[in-house]
Specification:
Elements: H1 5-8, H2 12-33, H3 35-44, H4 65-70, E1 86-90, E2 98-102, H5 104-120, E3 128-131, H6 140-151, E4 154-156, H7 163-173, E5 177-180, H8 182-194, E6 206-209, H9 216-226, E7 229-236, E8 241-247, E9 254-256, E10 261-266, E11 280-286, E12 297-303, E13 305-306, E14 318-319, E15 324-325, E16 330-332, E17 335-337, H10 339-348, E18 355-362, E19 365-373, H11 383-401, E20 406-410, E21 425-427
Parallel strand pairs: 3-4, 3-5, 5-6, 6-7, 18-21, 19-20
Antiparallel strand pairs: 1-2, 7-8, 8-9, 9-14, 10-11, 11-12, 12-15, 13-14, 16-17, 18-19
């Protein structure tokens, strides 16, 4: 099934023409309306007229998360705030959010690409979609929400958590499509078993899972435990949210909505564009976004592109499951976490930056433990004093990261020292 039969099956020549027209318009807009981009153009000796088509995109400067931080909150917006009707945000290393603005047209486009994604995995106007992504500043839930409404399905906005109630509603409301993180899907399956529910008797048939990395092995386990077909969806707040790409029923790569998001694969070290089929860092240009248009945004996600037509009939370029990150960002329960965020809290409290993040998957949910060394300057032999320090650290780190964690104080020199790059993260998850 197709939501937009024309675009999703467009031949390569016609798609290139659409992309080239959109890119020329985009370049002119950001040069005229966004001072930061105009400065980048001038530094590179570029003018909008130098970009004649999509074949010239490699001439354009990259955009990074650091650019968003330096222009916090609205410095990269291309339209006045009177045109911005929605603001979302995600975490950054400094504690300042990465802020994203949407115009009415942006929101309509977001609903359109999500409708394509949902239709590709079998969602129709007869579907009951239980949306167990978190509602709020996080983009995941609302992206699914408006896409499902556009398709005409019945959206059930449960948000995340209260798993027993999720299962009750799933049974009572006839949920046949579940949208959430893959780890939460496994947690739901486990809770079902403990409560005596037989998945075979549940109406659930389709799962749309994203916001964190998951392997093919995890897919098979979810499908087995929930008796569904599990599909991968890709997106990031800076670009649009979910809907940048999604699998189809073939489960053979995620179709990128490339009339809106132009993908490239680069060498993460040199920035050189790599040939099709090679593993590298995914770079995306938002060809049609109005509020926060981005040129060649470095996602830091490692993947491979495939432009051969899919067995489903779609000609949209496909990306493989994300294979890793080219930076130090962790994704824990769908939330972006940087080791440097923890470091900033320690330094603010006058502590030395000797710490380690331990990530585990317990009962199918991500758990974060932060080991922190106690230095002589802050050491106290009073139990109450250590408990107070531990509580303060936990509270401040939770406020900054937006997720709960366990803080474990350890004695000086406990954490292994390194002559090279410090080992800040131990990821014990098997995904």
């Amino acid at each position: 099934m197709y939501w937009n039969n024309h675009i999703e099956k467009l031949n390569r020549k016609e798609m290139t023409e659409i992309q080239s027209t959109s890119l020329r318009d985009l370049v002119q807009r950001v040069y005229t309306c966004v001072p930061s981009y105009r400065q980048k153009f001038q530094a590179a000796g570029l003018l909008p007229a130098d970009i004649q088509g999509i074949e010239d995109i490699h001439k354009l400067p990259f955009t990074t998360k650091q650019d968003l931080r330096e222009n916090y909150p609205y410095g990269l917006f291309a339209l006045p705030m009177s045109e911005i009707v929605r603001i979302h945000a995600s975490s950054g290393t400094t504690g300042k959010a990465t802020v994203v603005g949407y115009t009415k047209r942006d929101l309509n486009m977001w609903a359109e690409v999500m409708a394509r994604a949902l239709t590709a995995v079998g969602v129709t106007n007869k579907s009951f979609i239980q949306n167990a992504y978190g509602y709020g500043l996080f983009t995941g839930a609302l992206g699914v929400h408006y896409g499902a409404e556009l398709v005409g399905g019945s959206i059930i906005p449960t948000s995340v958590g209260n798993t027993a109630r999720q299962i009750t509603l799933m049974k009572d409301f006839g949920t046949n499509v579940l949208a959430c993180t893959p780890s939460y899907a496994l947690h739901i399956a486990e809770t079902m078993r403990e409560a005596g529910f037989d998945c075979q008797d549940m109406p659930l048939r389709v799962g749309i899972f994203g916001a964190e990395p998951w392997s093919e092995q995890m897919r098979q386990e979810i499908q087995r435990q929930l008796n569904i077909k599990a599909y991968d969806i890709y997106g990031l707040s800076e670009i649009i949210g979910p809907g940048v790409a999604c699998e189809c029923v073939e489960q053979d790569g995620m179709h990128i909505n490339e009339d809106h998001f132009y993908p490239e694969i680069i060498d993460p070290v040199t920035g050189e564009v790599l040939p099709e089929g090679e593993i590298g860092e995914l770079v995306i240009t938002t060809l049609t976004k109005e509020g926060l248009p981005l040129l060649r945004y470095r996602t830091r996600d490692l993947t491979v592109l495939n432009r051969t037509p899919c067995a489903c009939g779609r000609t949209l370029v496909r990306m493989q499951k994300v294979m890793g990150r080219s930076d130090d960002m962790l994704i824990i329960g769908g939330v972006n976490v940087f080791p440097s965020q923890v470091e900033s809290v320690l330094l603010d409290l006058g502590m030395a930056p000797h710490y380690q993040l331990i990530v585990e998957r317990i009962d199918n949910l991500d758990k974060l433990t932060i080991m922190v060394e106690i230095t002589e300057e802050v050491f106290t032999d009073e139990v109450r004093g250590l408990e107070t320090l531990e509580h303060t650290l936990k509270k401040k780190i939770s406020e900054l990261l937006g997720i709960s964690s366990k803080v474990k104080l350890v004695s000086s020199k406990t954490i292994e020292r390194s002559e090279g790059k410090a080992k800040r993260v131990i990821d014990k998850r098997k995904i």
